């Protein structure tokens, strides 16, 4: 199988690490070689959280500058900040709903214009898929399910070699029972947003 390097980036509380772990477990369930790594920032204070999932044969769990095949951004400015991991063939999938950092909330810094940020990303990569994932999480009646929306979008936008049944099996088995239905709905909404089905 062709190696695919996937980088997930967001801020603390958006469920980035759970999404990466579920993706890794789904790959194992499908019999694919996989490595998962994570970088914790100031996660509990809304700081950056980055993780990587490498599908296929690889010697390192680290995705270096310009190596990402896919970048999944849970927050638009964090997507822009991580653009150095991308190259001209990278697929970028990003949520467009801002989650401004504390410095912006208290008026100490401006928040970059989202449309301008998307233009910068579009100029650098092959494909940009941008949508309001948070709106879909709210539609699933679980505002904390953005990570499932973004997973669904990833599965719709890229051929990962992982069956849908494997990722859904992991959602059912690894998420707290009371959140399973909403998380599956969020996944399906993200998938349909991109696939149109």
What does this structure look like?
With 197 residues, this protein is α/β, with parallel strands linked by helices. The mean pLDDT is 92. The chain has a six-stranded mixed beta sheet, with helices on both faces. The protein is built from eight helices and six strands, in the order βαβββαβααβαααα. The protein is 41% helix and 19% strand. The radius of gyration is 16 Å and the shape is globular. β4 (70-73), α2 (76-81) and β5 form a beta-alpha-beta unit.
What descriptive keywords fit this protein?
six-stranded mixed β-sheet, 19% strand, alpha/beta
Q: Can you summarize this structure?
A:
This protein has 197 residues and is an alpha/beta fold. The protein contains 8 helices and 6 strands; from the N terminus they run E-H-E-E-E-H-E-H-H-E-H-H-H-H. The chain is 41% helix and 19% strand.
Strand order of the largest sheet: 2-3-1-4-5-6
SSE string, helix = H, strand = E?
EHEEEHEHHEHHHH
Ends apart, CA distance between termini: 27 Å
Number of strands: 6
Main sheet attributes: strand count, strand direction, barrel closure: 6 strands, mixed
Mean pLDDT: 92
Global outline: globular
- Helices, by number, come to 8
Strand % is 15-25%
Low-confidence runs: none
Helix/strand class = alpha/beta
Based on CA atoms alone, the radius of gyration comes out at 16 Å
Q: What is the helix content?
A: 40-55%
């Amino acid at each position: 199988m062709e190696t695919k390097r996937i980088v997930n980036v967001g801020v603390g509380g958006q469920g980035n690490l759970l999404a990466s772990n579920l993706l890794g477990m789904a790959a194992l369930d499908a019999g694919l070689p996989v490595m998962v790594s994570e970088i914790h920032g100031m996660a509990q204070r809304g700081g950056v959280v980055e993780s990587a999932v490498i599908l296929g044969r690889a010697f390192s769990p680290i995705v270096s500058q310009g190596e990402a095949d896919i970048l999944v951004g849970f927050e638009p400015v964090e997507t822009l900040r991580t653009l150095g991991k991308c190259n001209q063939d990278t697929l970028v999938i990003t949520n467009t709903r801002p989650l401004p950092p504390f410095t912006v909330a208290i008026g100490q810094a401006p928040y970059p214009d989202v449309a301008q940020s998307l233009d910068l990303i579009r100029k650098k990569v092959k494909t940009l898929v941008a949508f309001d994932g948070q709106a879909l999480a709210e539609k699933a009646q679980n505002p904390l399910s953005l990570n499932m929306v973004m997973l669904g979008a990833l599965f719709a936008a890229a051929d990962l070699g992982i069956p849908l049944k494997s990722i859904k099996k992991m959602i059912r088995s690894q998420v707290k029972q009371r959140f399973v239905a909403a998380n599956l709905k969020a996944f399906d909404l993200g998938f349909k947003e991109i696939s149109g089905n």
